[in-house]
């Protein structure tokens, strides 16, 4: 019976004091740093890219060579300032035109890009 009493006495003793359950504010520092890094590497550049694309869409004018998101090369035939649509001329010989949304234009082609598009 003596070993049982010793075991009970050992279990009844106070153990090593535990730190408070809340933790210190410094323990949140790695999570804060990850959030800041995520913002700087992913969110901020994407916002800048969207702003540049929106600015490019606002500066569209007649006779600009463009590339649509679906891969169609064309020339802007008509731009309505109050509308989201533009008229795109895609074939010079047949005077083929299509009406597309401004947002579907992925980029304005420079003179060298436009020359490459005609060769293909």
What can you see in these coordinates?
The structure is a single chain. With 120 residues, this protein is an alpha+beta fold. It has 2 domains: 29-59; 61-119, Roll (SH3 type barrels). It is built from 3 helices and 5 strands. It has helices spanning 2-12, 29-58, 111-119; strands at residues 65-68, 73-79, 85-91, 96-101, 105-108. A hairpin with a 5-residue loop joins strand 2 and strand 3. The chain is rod-shaped. The termini are far apart.
Search tags:
alpha+beta, 3 helices
Separate helix tally: 3
What name does CATH use for the topology of the largest domain?
SH3 type barrels
User: Roughly what percent helix?
Assistant: 40-55%
Report the C-alpha radius of gyration, rounded: 33 Å
Task: Report strand %.
Answer: 15-25%
Average pLDDT rating: 84
**CATH top level label of the largest domain:** Mainly Beta
Strand order of the largest sheet: 4-3-2-1-5
H/E series: HHEEEEEH
- According to DSSP, the number of beta strands is 5
Main sheet overview: 5 strands, antiparallel
Count of spatially separate domains? 2
Which class of secondary structure composition applies to the elements? alpha+beta
CATH architecture of the largest domain: Roll
The termini sit apart by: 97 Å
């Amino acid at each position: 019976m003596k070993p049982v009493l010793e075991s009970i006495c050992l279990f009844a003793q106070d153990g090593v004091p535990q730190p408070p359950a809340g933790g210190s504010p410094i323990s949140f520092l790695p999570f804060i740093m990850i959030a800041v890094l995520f913002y700087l590497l992913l969110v901020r550049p994407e916002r800048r890219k969207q702003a540049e694309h929106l600015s490019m869409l606002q500066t569209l004018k007649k006779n600009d060579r463009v590339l649509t998101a679906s891969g169609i090369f064309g020339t802007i035939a008509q731009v309505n300032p109050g509308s989201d649509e533009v008229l795109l001329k895609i074939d010079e010989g047949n005077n083929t035109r299509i009406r597309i949304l401004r947002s579907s234009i992925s980029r304005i082609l420079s003179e060298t890009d436009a020359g490459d598009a005609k060769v293909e």
